[in-house]
Amino acid sequence: xxxxxRRVQIVEVGPRDGLQNEAARIPTADKIAFxxxxxxxxxxIVEVSAFVSPKWVPQMADAAxxxxxxTRKPGVRYTALVPNLAGLTRAxxxxxxxxxxxxxxxxxxxxxxxxxxxxxxxxxxxxxTDAARxxxxxxxxxxxxxxxxxxxGAVAPAKVAGVAARLFDLGVYEVALSDTIGIAHPGQxxxxxxxVTERIPLAxxxxxxxxxxxxxxxxxxxxxQSGVATFDASAGGLGGCxxxxxxxxxxATEDLLYMLDGLGIExxxxxxxxxxxxxAIEPILGHPLPSRVVQAAKATKTK
Length: 303
Ligand code: HMG
Ligand code: MG
Fold this sequence. Notes:
This protein is an alpha/beta fold and 303 residues long. The protein contains twelve helices and eight strands. It is 42% helix and 15% strand. Helix 2 (28-40) packs across helix 3 (63-69), helix 2 (28-40) packs antiparallel against helix 11 and helix 7 crosses helix 8.
């Protein structure tokens, strides 16, 4: 395929975006093994957990224990979500390699997810980003509801671009434009990217798709054709956001790799290694993983 990046950076978000939404209690040791398997599969960035309020997201309450238990591979960045200065202190104590802050393009989702308006959250994140960068920690910025909000419906691309630019101005190295509820279609992808690239260079934009309506992969293709070269994905297609009603799993890392491998786009990540990680965590979840590639492999007994 012409005019698409030859190499793609995958950001593995399964242990965080995936496991934050699981109903079953996942033992910390299983989370640790999951992260280690994902790093063994060749990932260079693994989002391990979130230093958020355990009252809001109990699934991530063991973030420090997970970080303490993983075997850190050289060349792998182990990251975590941080909502405020209290989270930054916990993250620093756990020796994270970088942090991610998370704002929203729509007011209602911002209130529901982090109990702050967009303006309030950017003030909080300014303090977090300044403190993190002063200590040499890189900061990534998520922007939720870029393609639609579960409470407000459509979100104008100009609004997305405005908040994305404010997030970037805080000093994040990358803004992950996120489809929180998996509502995007491939016509929207270049529209949003074109609006955002008027304010942020393309090289600093990543895409984060959930697969609620089965459009995540085709949205990646649209993103590739717009020149984006960083995509988030979650092993097995685990995922969702506890504060976004109807948000299903993230784009599955296996499904993304199947397509990128087929297109001859390099990632450095081994599909078989991700399948091993997914196969090990699946029995603990109490439900089948949504990844089509994982399910096809089971059905055909192929790998
Ligand atoms: P709040 O209730 O407004 O703030 O929560 P608070 O300061 O009053 O804190 C409440 C309690 O939590 C207090 O404890 C704090 O000490 C404690 P109490 O005094 O009642 O005993 N607390 C903390 N404890 C540990 N670590 C902390 C921390 N902060 C406060 N960091 C807050 C505000 C932002 C903290 C809360 O709303 C929160 O943690 N929200 C996170 C929600 C979340 O994690 N959502 C999912 C991740 S985002 C996502 O999935 C989207 C994404 O994937 C992209 C996409 O798909 O769109 C990234
Ligand atoms: Mg997400």
